[in-house]
Design brief:
4 copies of one chain form a homotetramer. Chain A is α/β, with parallel strands linked by helices. Chain A is 31% helix and 25% strand.
């Protein structure tokens, strides 16, 4: 594959996600053959000084203070949306209508109607060869990509059970400050949309199946938190005096639900920011008739695989170090046993997106795929609001 | 503590549980100081030859072919019930009314009314100093006993979340034969009552809290199974031809539910016999405001402890090898690092029971405690039968 | 297999090892079919009161205060030696000459000449059908027995490397008191003979190969320790004031050595009582041309197995839970996933010994096998005393 | 810290190490504040076409086919040496004499005399403010940097034992092809210099102590290998027919040794390319009087820490996820629980080197530090060639 030109990127937002995306845009073509070479053309942020500083640090050539201007520019081919969820629909639809490809962070939106509108815009744009993709980046962790491959190969047989957890603990401290992530207006929901969305997507991705219904319970353990937190950050350790003003937490701290998938398995899901000691434990286990596979992001370079066809007496969960040239994405990096990190998923996301754009094929997860996740999120909220009564996922 | 006489035991049933109980009755006074020395006086089983063989093998002095005869004997102080759940109520009530102490395997009964009748009988008997206890043996695993101690000491602070799984896989093979454990009449329920009962009890035991409500989903993955299995066994690997006659599975293969506890935490529970590769993974994790603790019976001599008060940068889950003299029960056994096994829980159960009888105090778990578990089991079944709608636990 | 009579046992010593052996003599016939049923006939100890108390607690029918009297008794078939190493030769040779079978704790003796005399006595006795065996009990841990089976089956191919550690930490506290285990006269050596002997035996057992030479380094980190320790115990946590009298440590705290085996592999060995945090980490790893196997006694119910013939991309160390009916000894115990403990090795030792006596075959490890270990210990000491210069193992 | 100008880099070699170094040069200033901003000015390689391709891929502005030309260029401030060990001395000395800073891959040289000459050149250059550093990159893995910090803080107390292993398996396949890494002329030694050097450096780095003597054993398991391997690669899985010509392996496949450190501890070291299943297990454990710490690069984002001052009954190895803002280097990357990868060590190496250059301080490890490692390597070879007799490390 040889490159036929640049892909000029404009990015909106430059906090945690912006740093990760910037690294990926800079790095992908250094390790992978891409049909188009990404260029970090412009970064948009409301605060001109801060945006300029970020652009210099992260390697962006120019700055805009209004994302609308970014979309108007002729020298931008793709809009990369790294803002909170309440702005996704507006930016993405405008970009797609302007003929720009879009990469949009997850969750796709803060509501199903927004996600539907975005999906409709993506489908219209696709007719003109304009692509849209949602950033469920964990799919690009080599171990999770291998997980999916193995299931698609039939290595676990008929799937019976799915066990998914996303355990974090950054709100366990009652004095951790209030940020936009605890504000329903900005974030849509709390643990559910932020990290629950990831395990919903991951479980549907690896199984190749859709969740058809749920029964859910949601809980907010700490109702008010001190103001003054870093509004863009992930919280942090609280150091708060008694007289600090506080504000209400309007989202869930934890969301748990049972589920059914369209191919037969049942599932158990848990997303929480209160699992003290679990920093970023995105865990997924699938039990099938022939084998089982388990993953934990806190040990992200490994996959646990139980091959039920092994001889009795020799069976056991096998710790595959997912750093072999045979594994997805890995041959472009280091020798076996030399682990990858969190940001590699973003680099692989760029690789897959640019490859799809180059070949004119729809990248995945599409907006329609992400809308599917959004509908599960909505069903979870509906069930939790109705005595946990079973709620079918609309579709 | 010095012994003041014998405790003459009559045991009903002599399969898997009978072997474990017999070992405990033989062994407890060899390693612990007991107020009464257990004697293996008589074993009851319907098949005289098989019972005789079992009695000789396991060290019982005599045999009866009718459990009623056991209760009539003057030289029996305690009846140990190791039969399937459908016979528990009848035997236990008769024994208590005859003034015999009772140790009854779990689940206490196959229904709430039976368990209520048993509890009433136990309470009447207690007035005369006759004791009754239910065999939730896992409580006596040193790691789980330590788990409870640490929570009682306040080492995890306010409990927010409970995560409980009991994962087995012995039915994952579709040809594993039908046994009484898959027959609703005999067993009451499937994974739910057999192993779900253990995690309900364990979670209530370690937290010191009661489950107040549940939302549940139950599933039977394999509807019919070949006849001809060992009727007392745990199944096994199927080797079945095409023409083997089959029978219906009338219980659940897996039961999952969300829950609330009376002290505030939410819980997620999963009991299954289909988690391929998980042989006996009784897992329990509690997250509190100050610390977290996690246990897995497949690594039964360890406890994972996260101390949230450790200095930042030095925090992490600590693998406590629960083999120190400071740990519950352990000082009576071997030096540090020399692990214990499954049957030690039964020996500790005898120790606690005999110690309670000797001191005239009520042993735990009492029949009332076990009735509490039974009511949770009933609520799970009720919710699963009603679209997972939230079901309060009656009590 | 049906039993044809009793095997009347006389045991010398009743401390830690005595308790473990007694449990095994009591328990073996309850779970295994034995050709002879062990009887706990007599226990010998110099202190009559203490011996009587121990005998009652552990289930021995009578007591002698002189081991010579035990050997004279006609109603004793087997002498079980659980004393410190300096008395092994004297007792074992007398017992064998009196026509008693002998089970002798490890290390066989405190010197090669003693071990040679014992081996000669054992060989003379064998001609009359009198058996002698040395108590390298760890061989009977199911995971280590499986380890040997797998190598014998060719599952690791040509062995290239052996990695053996026995890490303890009970002397890491400088105030841990002096006991006989730190006295060269009583114990022969320190970490080397006590726990180094176990990994030498285990490595030769699983590989089926003999160590031919070594280069060693030995170290005593703490030269003097407070007197007053429990003379039969394993030490413990020191609570010692400044004026407590102290005595010299005359043995090694740690012994490390490199080695060659007669089939080609090289080895690295480490025995220490100063590996803080490692309570009883008997670890063994073998790397071959086709596979690797690793074991750690702190996780004694598992074996780690790497099958190098697995498909690339699916390779990894597999955690075999050694609790399956296919595994050595296990089918006599509990269902899969229900772990065994430290003392089961002693029960299996009785099973193997009694089975060998019943069939008239030589049990292993024989005194000759144990003499082989003793020669390696001597070579280690010789090399350590000679600038680590390579020392061939005499044979 | 603000940048005061560029640091113009010329790199020699562009294989595995070249790719890792290039990524680091490109990335360091994106995440860290550096006093000088690295520029990828020129890459040198003998094959003009291949070097050009590599330079384009890796982001280097120009190409030279002779490293001497690189040194002559005025627009180069620093020479980065990524070639096999036989060329290090020549290039480094020339560069230093030309007033260029030098970063040289490890091991520093193929012999002690070469390393001495390089160190002398570095010391002469230092007088003029020209800096030289050796690339023992693993020091910059956050977990190993934390390891050192904790020991320096006194958290393990007096060090008694060091246990170091570097286990790989890429030569376990007898058909893995011959490369320069198995050629004594090019590589100096085999496992010893390639990976043994890393654990020697890491053990001296974290303990702050020097190895004073060793007793060693070295082994070549496979004497000849098929020609035709990728001459710059790490080998790979062999697919070789019977008639493929072969060549001799002139280096060690495995090197094991015992050691003493100048502060008292003893050590055990093992470097091997034949530990089947261990892909890149750089392992280091230190046991002290107050605590123990253990690391394994196959789980590179964690550190195992045993705090011996914890209350009895609560002690255990703690799995610190080294992804907290308090940990070395980490605050510049992602939130807690989002792991880093192999290449981050190289980025941190650039950060430390550029920071030292900017402040005019000597970076570590200096050439003198690396000469110390070289002397240990020489002592290992001398002992192995002399019946493992103890060999003091000259110095």
């Amino acid at each position: 594959m040889s490159s036929s030109g640049p892909l000029r990127v404009g990015m909106v937002g430059y906090a945690f996600m912006g740093a990760a995306h910037s690294h990926a845009w800079r790095t992908a073509s250094r390790f992978f053959d891409l049909p188009l070479v990404p260029e970090l053309t412009a970064l948009a942020g409301r605060n001109a000084v801060a945006a300029r500083t970020a652009a210099d640090r992260m390697g962006w050539s120019s700055v805009e203070t209004d994302w609308r201007r970014l979309i108007e520019r002729d020298d931008i081919d793709l809009i990369d949306i790294c803002t909170p969820g309440d702005t996704h629909a507006q930016i993405a639809i405008a970009a797609l209508e302007a003929g720009k490809h879009v990469l949009c962070e997850k969750p796709l939106a803060n509501s199903v109607p927004e996600a539907e509108a975005m999906t409709a815009a993506a489908e219209r744009a696709a007719a003109d060869g304009v692509m849209a993709m949602c950033g469920f980046t964990y799919r690009r962790t080599p171990a999770l990509a291998l997980f999916k491959q193995m299931i698609a190969n039939g290595e676990v047989g008929t799937i019976r059970q799915v066990r998914a957890q996303y355990l974090q603990d950054w709100l366990s401290d009652e004095n951790a400050p209030l940020t936009w992530r605890m504000d329903k207006e900005k974030a849509g929901s709390g643990a559910l949309g932020d990290i629950g969305a990831h395990i919903i997507d991951a479980s549907q991705f690896v199984t190749g199946q859709q969740i058809t219904g749920v029964s859910a319970l949601m809980e907010t353990f700490v109702a008010r938190r001190p103001l003054g937190g870093d509004l863009v950050g992930l919280g942090g350790r609280g150091q708060v005096g008694e007289d600090v003003p506080s504000g209400p937490v309007t989202v869930d701290d934890a969301a748990v639900f049972t589920a059914r998938f369209d191919g037969g398995p049942i599932g158990v899901f848990e997303a929480t920011r209160f699992a003290l000691g679990r920093r970023n434990a995105l865990r997924l286990e699938v039990n099938g008739s022939l084998g089982s596979i388990a993953f934990d992001f806190e040990d992200m370079n490994t996959l646990q695989y139980y091959d039920g066809t092994n001889e009795p007496g020799r069976q056991g969960f096998r710790r595959i170090l997912v750093t072999e040239p045979e594994h997805p994405y890995v041959s472009h990096w280091w020798p076996a046993g030399h682990g990858l990190g969190y940001e590699h998923g973003f680099t692989h996301q760029v690789v897959d997106l640019v490859t799809a754009i180059g070949s004119g094929e729809q990248p995945t997860p599409s907006f329609a795929d992400a809308l599917g996740v959004q509908r599960v999120l909505a069903a979870v909220e509906a069930s939790a609001g109705n005595n946990s009564t079973w709620q079918f996922v609309d579709g």
